[in-house]
Amino acid sequence: MKNALIVYNGFLNAAGPPAHAESFVAAAKKSGISMKAVKNDSLARALFMYAPARQYHDPLPLCPSSCDFIIFWDKDVILCRILQDMGFKVFNAARPIEICDDKALTAVELRGKADMPETAVAPATFDNIGYTSLGFADIAAESLGFPLVVKERKGSLGQQVYIVRDRESLLNTVIAHDRAPLLFQKFIDTSNSMRFFEDGLRAAAEASPPVFDDKKTVSCDLRIYVIGKKTASAVVRRSVSDFRANIAQGSTPMAYIPTEEESLLAETAAVALGLDFCGVDIVADASGKRYLLEVNSNAGFLGFYRTHGVNIAEMILQYIIGKTRR
Ligand SMILES: Nc1ncnc2c1ncn2[C@@H]1O[C@H](COP(=O)(O)OP(=O)(O)O)[C@@H](O)[C@H]1O
Ligand SMILES: [Mg+2]
Which CATH fold topology does 118-186 show? Predict the structure, then answer.
């Protein structure tokens, strides 16, 4: 019988393990693996450094020989790195999680490897200083034009992604978020891009392809799940209300079979960043050109079960079992 841990953030999930952790535990049980869900803060002992070697007693068997692998469903990269250094096999590893958690780092790492929209990173400042001049925002706007997209470098669910339509709202947005590292990106209008996904939607639909009024499309994108360098599953997300196609912002996911080019873009990014599993966001512009927007190391997958009947937790687990076979 194998033993494993899944680490999740204890502060974000004070009430107990999130649904994703539960689905990994259930998938593990099916494969005869005893997996325990643990909060990052319950491993706080591991964060002691430069101290005499200590024993890690129950309830957590913090010993690599008694734990076959760890699924790291969190962004606590220091903890992740220390667990790796202790000899645990950790999925995803710390560095890929760190790169994905920062959209600017992702863009730097993928330069020359994957097409992303034109992107300008705001120069770094300090929390207690903010921005004492805003010339960099004008420089970005000169090249990107309006509307443009402002993103907090660390953000998710579309919550820290803003569209600005003129100079005044650009400067106001920058000032309002001067405590958060930012980047600026060319706005890719996807309101007419559903047509590029029609074949893949048809191919994925078991009975009849989804019906929608294309005139109402405000935005759409692809979320491609990559596991072990290969595309595992994909959805088109279509919004009738927002330029952000996140499900958390009200979009509808639809089962989709990506083109070879789309799969290759997602897989190239996953491999370049060293991810064992990830969700990649891709858009198509009005000419059909595909751009990668971001890579998510802890990408939600429960929607894939609803749209496809596929269990991503089980797929990730099978991949990890293959990699950790002794
Ligand atoms: N440059 C862009 N042009 C057009 N739409 C964008 C752009 N960047 C992001 N979006 C939209 O906003 C959504 C959220 O952006 P994303 O970079 O994936 O951040 P998050 O981590 O919040 O999901 C995307 O899924 C996409 O629909
Ligand atoms: Mg996203």
Answer: Dna Ligase; domain 1 (3.30.1490)
